[in-house]
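(Fold this chain)
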Amino acid sequence: MSIPELIIQTWPRLLAGLGMTVQLTIMSLIIGGTLGLIFGLLSVSKKKTLRAIALVYVDIVRGTPLIVQAFFIYFGIPAALGIRLDPNLAGIITLSLNAGGYLAEIFRGGIESISKGQMEAARSLGLPYGMAMRKVVLPQAVRTMTPALINQCIITLKDTSILSVIGIQELTQTGRLIIANNYQTFEMWTIIAVMYFIIIMILTKISKRIERRMSYGKSSN
C-alpha cells in the first residue's frame, strides 16, 4: 500500500490522534503556564522560604526525565495510594508539572530582565507590590519572554509523544496501533513525522514573526 493510500485509509484515526495531541498540549500549557507564573513570582520573591520552594520545584522538574515523571504519576502514586488514574489525566498532570517548571524559569528570567527601577518607580507612586508587578513589570517582561514561551509550546507539543508509554492515544500511539495492524512501519512513521513537522514548522514561523514584530517595536521606540 502506498503512502497516499495509507493516509486515505487511516486519516480518521490519525486526525483523532492529532486532536488528542493538540488537546493535551493546550490543556497542559494553560495549567503549566499558571504554575509557571506562580513559581516564577515565588522565585523573585524577597522571602527566602518562597524562593526555596520555587527552587525545589524547578530543580525536580528539570532534573528528572519526562518519562520518569510520567511513570511516577501514572504508576507510582496510584500504587502508593491504592487508586487508579486515568491515562489522559495522568498525562495532563505530567505535562503540566513539567511545562510549569520550565515556564517558571522563563518567567523568572523575564521579570529579572526588567530594570529594578521600574518596580521602585511604581512603588514610589503608591502601588502595592502585587499591582506593580501585574501592571508595570509583567507587561514589559512578556515582550521579552514571548519567543521563549512559544518555544516551550513547541517543546510541550513534542513531549506529548512520550506519553504514548502510558497508553494515551495521541498521534504517536495512534501510529503504533496502526502499524500493529498493517505492519507498514516505514510508511506510517513517515506520515507521523511529516504531521509533526508541519505543525512544528507553523509554530516556529509564528514565533519568528512575533519576534520580528517585537524587535521592530523596540527599535521604533
